[in-house]
Each structure stands twice: as structure tokens, then as C-alpha cells.
Specification:
Length: about 350
């Protein structure tokens, strides 16, 4: 078996901690030796790996909810691939698995950290997006954290991304009175309305978010799902109705800031409106995973839920894909696909 295995694999290392926007020289694509897996481990040829906004925070050497990437070591993140060697019970060569050792061609994975996935239900890449971590983030953030209920008006920022596009559609499918999204291009705005069924959408680059949101939601909003922070959060606080709820999932507007960014200037409204603003991490909601997969698989099968991916081909493009994600060049989930 081992004779047929590749002897080397390429993997992305962080070699310097970015200050502000990540630069190409902060990363290196390096070759690593491949060996047969030890007892209890499997060797996986990655087919796709995920690049996600949270990874920018892991490039800083600061204490956070997840450990920082180590310098001169392979980075990690969600990946799906095919088992090419197994020394673990329950996994056979040819199985497809989801695991956490992305940013590399070949992954040596502890079996307990791999989950078998069915390529017959959905394309493998979907397990990194609509059926994966971003999808569960949308599901838990809307239903659990924001306590969404039928009749709520919902506003989503970064609405054409992997999480935001799913939040808006889940709200629509489950009886929202109105779904509004913001995005960074006219093309994405059209996608939100024409493809994903949002009631209204706007390009945040076209004018103040506050004014565009008021026009799109003249009767206010009940739920705001925040992927952006900054001006969007301030605008949402202004438009939220009494007892409105905010899920703070991400603040991509400030991930590359080198100085502290100002907070919303209208925080006093939180008192009179009795707003609830809650941060979320998807890892706190593992108990919802089974129901999430069941529900979302059903909505995908019925055609009620749609998704898009932006696939960048080739491991050499790992850095480009990540920076493109931070710039908003993706529509839907950004993934790197390996030949």
C-alpha cells in the first residue's frame, strides 16, 4: 500500500504575522514529506479546502477563542478529500471525509477528527459551505442566537457571502415578513433579489448604509445578522424595532485595521429599544448539527435553498483566494479546489 503513496505534498505556511492587510511574503508554499499513517490515523488527499474570514484573526499572535497559526508550520482549516491510506477502523481507502487539516495537498488526520461525508447527497465542496461550518453558522445564528420567529423583518450584511446568503434564505423559507441584504457590488445585489429571493438589497458602496437601509426597510427591522460591523452595525441599531435582536457573527470591515476602530455612535438606542446584541461562535452550537443537516438537505432537495461557490483552482492560489475573500471578490463560499 505505502509504495503507491505520494512521497511529498505541498502545504501553506505562515512565515510572518501580517500587519494590516496580509501580503504574499507573509506566506510560503512548501514541500513536506509524506509517510504511511500511524495507528488510528488516515491519509487524505484533499479535494477542496476552505478559506474563511476568521483565519485572519488566527494570523495575529493574540489570545483569542482559537489558537493562532504557528509560524513556519502548516496552516489549517476545513477540508474535504479522499482517503488514500488508512490505519484506522471504520475508514477505508476511497472514503470521502471532512476534516480540519486544509491548506495542504495531503493530510495526515487522526481518525477521531474526520467525518465521513456522502458525495451522492451533495458535491463534496458543499460540506465546506452550505452543509458545513458556514451553513451551521447561519442556521444557529438566525434561529438560536437571534431567536428568529415568523413575521420578523431581517437584515443581513455581507449577504452574498457563504453565511449571509444562507441566513437570508432561511429567514425567507421560514416566514420572514421582509428580508433585506447588503453587498458590495450591483451584480451581488441582483443575485440576492433574483436568485436568493431577498425582498430588497443594496450596494453599501452607493451611499450611507443608514439611508439605504431605511429606504429598504421603512417599517424597521426585528433581526440584524452582522457579518461586517462598523457602519452597518450603527445603521442596524438605528433601524431596529423594539426588542430587536442582533447576532454578531463577524466584523470583516475591521479585520485588517491597524488601529482601533470606532464603535457605533448610537449605542444609547439599545436602552430605549431594549435591544439584545449577542456575539456567536459556531462551535457553541454543535448540538444543532443533526437537525441543521436534516433541514438544509431537505430545502436543498426541494430547491427552496440555493447556493453558489467561488472555486479557485490549484493549491498555488491559496494566498490569492484568501486575500480575495477579504476583499469581497467571492460570491458565496470561497474554496480552493485541488486537481
Amino acid at each position: 500500500m505505502s509504495a503507491a503513496l505520494p512521497t511529498t505534498s505541498r502545504e501553506w505556511h505562515l512565515v510572518a504575522r501580517p500587519h494590516g492587510w496580509p501580503r504574499a511574503e507573509d506566506f510560503a508554499l512548501r514541500e513536506a514529506a509524506v509517510a504511511a499513517p500511524a495507528e488510528g490515523r488516515i491519509l487524505v488527499r484533499n479535494k477542496h479546502f476552505s478559506v474563511d474570514p476568521y483565519m485572519r484573526g488566527r494570523m495575529n499572535d493574540v489570545k483569542s477563542y482559537t489558537p493562532p497559526f504557528q509560524l513556519d508550520r502548516p496552516m489549517d482549516g476545513g477540508a474535504v478529500g479522499e482517503v488514500i491510506a488508512s490505519a484506522a477502523e471504520g475508514f477505508a481507502v476511497g472514503d470521502h471525509v471532512l476534516h480540519g487539516l486544509g491548506w495542504r495537498e495531503i493530510a495526515d488526520v487522526p481518525a477521531e477528527h474526520a467525518v465521513k461525508v456522502d458525495a451522492g447527497i451533495a458535491p463534496l465542496s458543499a460540506y465546506l459551505g452550505v452543509l458545513g461550518m458556514p451553513g451551521l453558522t447561519a442556521y444557529a445564528g438566525l434561529f438560536d442566537v437571534a431567536s428568529f420567529k415568523e413575521g420578523d423583518a431581517v437584515f443581513v450584511s455581507g449577504a452574498a457571502g457563504a453565511v449571509g446568503s444562507q441566513v437570508g434564505q432561511l429567514a425567507r423559507i421560514n416566514g420572514a415578513s421582509r428580508v433585506i441584504g447588503s453587498a458590495g457590488s450591483d451584480e451581488k445585489v441582483r443575485l440576492l433579489v433574483e436568485e436568493y429571493g431577498f425582498d430588497a438589497a443594496f450596494n453599501y458602496k452607493d451611499g450611507p448604509v443608514r439611508d439605504q437601509l431605511r429606504e429598504a426597510a421603512p417599517d424597521g427591522i426585528d433581526v440584524y445578522f452582522d457579518n461586517v460591523g462598523g457602519e452597518h452595525l450603527e445603521a442596524a441599531i438605528g433601524s431596529l424595532n423594539l426588542h430587536g435582536r442582533v447576532t454578531v457573527c463577524g466584523m470583516i470591515a475591521q479585520y485588517n485595521a491597524t488601529e482601533p476602530t470606532p464603535g457605533p455612535r448610537n449605542m444609547a438606542l439599545i436602552i430605549g429599544k431594549r435591544l439584545r446584541i449577542q456575539g456567536m461562535l459556531v462551535g457553541d452550537h454543535a448540538d444543532l448539527k443533526e437537525k441543521f443537516v436534516q433541514d438544509v438537505a431537505g430545502w436543498l432537495a426541494s430547491g427552496e435553498l440555493k447556493y453558489q461557490e467561488t472555486a479557485i483552482q490549484g493549491i498555488e492560489k491559496g494566498y490569492d483566494a484568501f486575500v480575495g475573500l477579504l476583499r469581497g471578490e467571492n460570491t458565496g463560499k470561497m474554496i480552493v479546489s485541488l486537481a
